[in-house]
Amino acid sequence: MLNRYPLWKYLMVILVITISFLYAAPNLFGEDPALQISGSRGTEVTPATLTQAQQTLTEAGISIKSAVLTDSQLLIRFNNTDDQLNGKDLVAQVLGDRYITALNLAPATPAWLAAIGGNPLKLGLDLRGGVHFLMEVDMHAALSRVQEQMVQDFRTELREQRLRYSGVLNQDDGVLVVFRDEAVRDQALSHLRKRYPELLFSEQDKGENAGLFATMSEQQLKETKEYALQQNITIIRNRVNELGVAEPLVQRQGAERIVVQLPGIQDTARAKEILGATATLEFRLVDERADVAAATAGRVPPNSELFSDRDGRPVVLQKRIILTGEHIVDASSGMDEFSRPQVNIDLDAAGGSRMADFTKDNVGRAMATVFTEYKPTDELGRDGKRLFRKDQEVINVATIQSRLGRSFRITGIDSMSEAQNLALLLRAGALIAPIQIVEERTIGPSLGQQNVENGLQAMIYGMLAVVAFMTIYYRKFGLVANLALLANVVIIIGVMSLVPGATMTLPGIAGIVLTIGMAVDANVLIFERIREELRDGRGAQQAIHLGYEKALSTIADANITTLITAVILFAIGTGPVKGFAVTLIIGILASMFTALVGTRALVNLLWGGKRLSKLSI
Length: 617
Hints:
This protein is α+β, with helices and mostly antiparallel strands. Helix content is 49%, strand content 25%. It has 16 helices and 23 strands. The chain has a 4-stranded antiparallel beta sheet with strand order 2-3-1-4. The relative contact order is 0.11. The model has no long low-confidence stretch (mean pLDDT 82).
């Protein structure tokens, strides 16, 4: 019999719509004004912090909905924004600078919905609010770092070739190697030119000594700067992922700048601390023959440097760097056998081989772990850009007990929070060069809320216009199309709420409005085909059957070509373009389902298999 569906098809349609509504439902409950309290570096949020914050708010007569401590963060919910703002000032004053107190909006999703993975839509920067950073890479530091590596390489090469030199000096625009006679200088020049063909070498006498000056070519300078920028972009993306931000925007701007947008982030201090931190580790041998007292007085051995540990005690380390953080592929925090914080390190193959070869020959000697971090200063360089200060601190000194491999651990860390922070930075990677935030903009939730309201109004007005037209023009069949249209919107919102990483932006709302029109367009094609069959004298049941059958190819062609365009936009687009493409892809698939399967199921249920003399279409 024509126009009858088997039971399983009806159940499939009901199941899809029910699941979509279930996961779209969290968007109906809104959000609570909240405070998010996290510890600054080295400070943990504990139950005592929760008690202190609650007592402060209670004494001030401010009521709270709930206060929960999870993942080393405290989230306090309020009944209204006035209590939220007043509570922030009080709590921040009581807790002090050791804690970061930030305004936030927490989803008010019921516990049973949250238990099955129901969460509201993730909103983009333009709808949710958040922070926008414009960062500039310090290319001078990137080039200096390359030259420091050149110094280490030259020393190693000359030592292995048994070519005696007086010194290898890192200068502003290159590396100067000083020899005592020209014969040795000429031998070194011949060897280094073969070993480093990408460098430019020139003879440069210095008093009675023969000098050899090495600089990078223009091509290598360009490649070094490009590498520094691209690596920093990759590492910042990794750090953003560690922060758990949905649909962030990280892209280059010009030759030295990076744009970062973090939707929904209210904890700007935490974001800046993680994104801007240029932290890495260096492993060096302790110079056990050096006189620490003499070194503190300024008499440091020529191949050593003076450092301080966390307690301010002086430590003399060799200049030679055994290994740097560039070889770290994974890092995780944990506790040692004495319940003290530690960071577990995994190295790549090259780093593991180097560490194994070095420690094999130095069992019984002391090796130090140096934490290196660049911090911006108030001083400006000759190019007008802010200068960075290099802070180095010995966080661990341990005796090499046996040959180390690709995995080992470092201890001597003050707190578990600091261990987690250090592991995050090392896991995400060390920035190739320091960056400074040259522009910071915060988009408040109020502006985002206005965009949401404007977008919803556009969607509602568009739907009302379409519903009115379909009802008047296609009568009862128009009502069927309107029900399918509502189901289409529910499916889009439900899928976007369910899919990890899907984010709703203002262009995304535009994509939903567009798919509403496309969904109706499919129904118009079907209904007009049914009308055409009726005019040709077909019976009602045959007209319905042929209408859906003949319109299928046209609808499929139109939607597939649009789907291909949306996929290309998603593949090559960034930020708002990608957000638009996501909603368009989901909307196209949902509209095809509701138009071809959903409306057909409803039409079959209402009119299928019945003797009809006419149709209300």
